[in-house]
UniProtKB/TrEMBL annotation:
InterPro entries: AhpD, AhpD-like, AhpD_core, CMD-like. HAMAP family: AhpD. This is Alkyl hydroperoxide reductase AhpD. It catalyses: N(6)-[(R)-dihydrolipoyl]-L-lysyl-[lipoyl-carrier protein] + a hydroperoxide = N(6)-[(R)-lipoyl]-L-lysyl-[lipoyl-carrier protein] + an alcohol + H2O. Homotrimer. One of its GO terms (biological process) is cell redox homeostasis. The gene is ahpD.
Length: 185
């Protein structure tokens, strides 16, 4: 089980992350597809090699090939959109928002999975990437479709833990020069 392996790889100073990774992947209000799509999309957005390799393997045990592709699509599109729309916000010039984006994003309209699932995955990636405009848009879309705040919060919690695990393991790999070894304790 990849989650168990990641938990072992986390250093002692990240004990809370060990516990959080176990709890967010086992105790959630998200459906199994929603949860593992959030895990996969967040791992991609977090850019941590070890985290992505381990979590993708486990996510693929819980997702259909179509759902896995849709989670990857959410991560890819949000990688683009989060930069674009966050930049528009940071420029503080409303005239840019009036300009046509000219960015292809047809998959958002027809992601191949339930729209709520895709929106949750897009929200999670937007949380990792810190795009307030995208977070607001996806949260409003989800709330408009009747998704409870607690479900939305779960997706954000999963994304935050996956990202923290990726950052922590990347730091260990960078300072040690190798993939982390299981922690002792």
């Amino acid at each position: 089980m990849a989650v168990a392996r990641l938990r072992e790889l986390l250093p002692d100073h990240a004990k809370d992350l060990r516990l959080n990774l176990g709890s967010v992947t086992s105790q959630s209000q998200l459906s199994e597809q929603q949860l593992w799509g959030v895990v996969l999309a967040s791992a991609i957005a977090s850019r941590g090699r070890t985290t992505l390799v381990e979590l993708e393997a486990e996510a693929l045990e819980h997702l259909t090939p179509t759902a896995a592709d849709a989670a990857r699509t959410a991560a890819a599109l949000m990688a683009m959109n989060n930069i674009y729309y966050r930049t528009l916000h940071l420029l503080e010039d409303d005239e840019y928002a009036k300009l046509r984006a000219g960015l292809r994003m047809n998959a958002i309209a027809n992601p191949g999975v339930d729209k709520v699932d895709f929106e949750l995955w897009s929200l999670a990636v937007s949380a990792v990437n810190g795009c307030g405009r995208c977070l607001t848009a996806h949260e409003r879309e989800l709330r408009g479709r009747g998704v409870a705040r607690e479900v939305i919060q779960d997706a954000i919690r999963v994304a935050s833990v996956v990202h923290a695990v990726a950052v922590t393991l990347e730091a260990v790999e960078t300072t040690s020069g190798a993939t982390p070894s299981p922690a002792t304790g």
